[in-house]
Amino acid sequence: MYPMDVGVVILNWNGRKLLEQFLPSVVRFSPESTIYVVDNASTDDSVAFLSENFPTVNIIQNKTNGGYAKGYNDGLSNLSEDILVLLNSDVEVTQNWLSPILSEFKKDNSLVAAQPKILDYKNKAYFEFAGAAGGFIDKYGYPYCRGRIFNTIEEDLGQYNDIKNIFWATGACLFVRKDAFWNVGGFDEDFFAHQEEIDLCWRLQANRGIVKYVGSSSIYHLGGATLTSENPKKTFYNFRNSLLVLLKNVKGSNVWWTIFIRLILDGIAGLQFLLHGKIAHTFAILRAHLSFYALLPKFLEKRREQATRLKYFCTKSVVWHYFINKNRTFNEL
Fold it and tell me: Which domains are assigned to the chain?
């Protein structure tokens, strides 16, 4: 094994309270790393709080708030560490959380991205929505995880205490090899936030990299600290960005039929929101589609450069399995 420098990088935007609550665990349990906080042009007292209370933490100040994608691209641009750990500000880490994943990177040069087990900070016996035990998508771009399908969350009973190749690693705690990250151009800043890690992992694998889940490392994620599931902005980004991921990365003319089916499914979801009185979410889906159409010319150009015939799904329709077959866990798919 060769020595490996590690940088833990936390993106912050007006998150002073989250830093106060969660940063101590990162400082305590990450002695082998250099810790950075990238501030995304906060208007609260985050930077002053960090300077006064965490003198060992390096502060990088971005000039604008470009969301998750641009925020990390800007913040990572001058870092030299071999492995970068992109960590949400609402994460409590555990003792020895880095070592098992770093060991995998040392053993396998083709490993380019990874994630630990993501558990719920509010209910620590259960997996957490954003990543759980490793991510996948179906043919129509719906993300799901081992341990989480739509809003059904599994209890952690040790069923995913393994090491497994996955399709995407969560942006809540994303280990990525620095050279591989920049070789594929970093995050696509047009995503702004949500599903940019799926797009990144797709491109990393198209470049012959491997993405893994390592179940012997655990963290606890609060989730929804920036946008809760009840926020229509989250609905907007998730629905729009799913379409953009497919358009950009799926090679072949069949992508248009896939997108057409997805648009119909989105319409059904919009009607469901309407029937449940969530009108703002219905309009968020409509705005997501309009934004998708507006970005078509730009993403068609990206498609010409980046679309690949990479096998991206093992389950054709997680919607069918979940809502029709009533399959509620990953192992039932």
Answer: 6-221 (3.90.550.10), 232-332 (no CATH)
